[in-house]
Amino acid sequence: MKIGLVTYAPEKVPGYDIHVFYSKWTNGEVFPAAKDMQNDVTCFCDAKALREDPSLVAVSPSGPALRKNRLFNFSFDYVCPTHPKYQAKVLDYVESLNKQQIEGVTLNLYHFPELEFCTCLRCTELRKKSGLSWTDWRAKTVTDFLKEARSRVKGTFAVEMFPDPIMARERFGIDFEAIAPLVDYFHVPLSSRDYLTNYWVDLLARDFLKILKKPVVVELSGEMLTDEKAEALLKTGSYLSRHGLMGVLLLVHDSENARQIARYAVNNSVFRDWLSKYEFPEMNRIIEDWAKIY
Fold first, then answer.
1. What are the residue ranges in the chain where pLDDT is below 70?
2. Which of 41, 74, 214, 263 has a CB 3.0–4.6 Å from the CB of 24, allowing a cystine?
3. Mean pLDDT of the residues in the chain
4. pTM of the shown model
5. CATH of the domain at 112
6. For residue 66, which phi and psi values (nearest 5 degrees)?
């Protein structure tokens, strides 16, 4: 199993195998390509674009896909994924990244906001013309966008998965079977403020491994750690290391945050004894490699 980072800083950290840089954020900020890294692009969540042009928003009979719409539990503000000019903007950015020396591109939030979206006039007309059911049309729309994005990526291509292994196609238009031939691996974020309770991470990771037909990496949140949270994070990663994942990625703010996690693991004899006692050979190997550096 590989160990990696998802980071807001375009710098690689010794001891980590995979480096993913957030190059386009949900707030609309866009950054130059991070060289020799996987660049992660937020597609259809863009608070800045929606402030500048509110007509971009995805809509439903229950209102727009905005955080302020309390009928839904949205963490971000969503652009309609069929808007041609905004689609072109995202695809042009993906293409611009690939003119640089990057490892590849990961896409996130490339799908519909939820089950009721989008019912704008354009989406309504496109669905009618397709002759498909609501669910099938939305799934085809998302898959077609990913096909177009894939054609513009010269390196590794991955997509983040909204962490719902059962209802993803109905809720978001994410068709696991259709997407699998397009990607090199699936990226599943299982974010939390802490992992003091962690059985749900193990459960969801195993479900996705059974369903998805390509390698899987799981992302865990590693920001703003106390010692207690760091130990819980590392133990959660240890349980994941038993399941045949391609890798575990740790979401961090920057390189020092990543070094903090490695140093904690190396210098915590109680945690290292726990690894040996309960036999986590993959995580033991990672910590031993970190010990050579930290």
1. none
2. 41
3. 97
4. 0.96
5. 3.20.20.80
6. -125, 150
